[in-house]
Design goal:
This protein is mainly beta. It has one domain (20-122). It has one helix at 2-15; strands at residues 27-47, 50-67, 70-76, 85-93, 100-105, 113-122. The protein has a six-stranded antiparallel β-barrel with strand order 1-2-3-6-5-4. A hairpin with a 2-residue loop joins strand 2 and strand 3. The longest helix is centred in the N-terminal third of the chain and has 14 residues, at 2-15. It starts with a helix and ends with a strand.
């Protein structure tokens, strides 16, 4: 039984996706601005001993970019905020709801990508 678990664990790496190829990033994203917004909120938990208020914060990171002649507002899903400038990008489709996102390759040469969700678009 131990050997079966080890085989399943090792074969899971074979199923992992390959590193993205540079030629897959066929778009140029011109990042014009970025911003970060932190919202503080309080959650109230009702218990038999009384109400307990638990404070927390949520940070939203937004990037403004021109991609393929269209102005996009992108929400940062993974990775850091890019500095203004030109970046290679590719358009990807989420399998569960068919929405489109953008991915930029990371500059550290790791072969990983930063993901950006489209939250707004204009044709100006």
């Amino acid at each position: 039984m131990k050997y079966a678990a080890v085989i399943v664990f090792l074969t899971s790496f074979a199923w992992a996706g390959d590193k993205p190829k540079p030629e897959d990033f066929n778009l140029v994203a011109h990042v014009t601005a970025f911003r970060s917004n932190t919202e503080h909120f309080t959650n109230t938990h009702h218990t038999k001993w009384g109400d307990i208020d638990v404070g927390s914060a949520h940070t939203t990171r937004i990037v403004e970019a021109v991609i393929d002649g269209k102005h996009y507002t992108l929400k940062v899903v993974t990775g850091k905020l890019p500095e203004p400038g030109d970046y290679k990008a590719r358009r990807t489709r989420r399998s569960w709801n068919n929405d489109w996102d953008f991915e930029f390759p990371r500059e550290d040469g790791s072969g990983k990508v930063n993901k950006y969700k489209i939250v707004g678009m204009s044709e100006e």
